[in-house]
Amino acid sequence: MAKKVKKRASSTSFSLSRLFDKISTTKPSSLVVSIVVLAYAIFLFGGGLYTIISEPLPAFYTTSGFIFLYPDLGEQFISDSIIAVTLYAIGFVGLLAIYQSTKYAYKPRQAYMMLVIGVTFLLLAYIFLEDAILIKLGR
To answer: Which keywords annotate this record (predicted)?
Structure first.
């Protein structure tokens, strides 16, 4: 019985060491690393850290309806963070579309369409972010 336990324990430690070696020598692709870094940056820009630390309300209900944007610049609802993160992501997708349009120099129609889509997304994100700030300021 002791020999079986020793054999099983040694094979388990061997398989764990192989797994540890495999994990420690794995090199993630640059695409995965950049997606993770950009997602983290968008999360921070959108106020995700504030949302985690201060645990604000999701939204507020008044007699006239729900308020999704806090009417002050110093505070925010969870919906503020969600709206900001979504708009930043749309803006980033617009920047990516603009960048992709430069890769189609020999296909002018496709390059132009990608450029128009990218600029549209970027402008929509900018306009809605500015509008959200104006709502928060009460104007």
So the answer is: Membrane, Transmembrane, Transmembrane helix
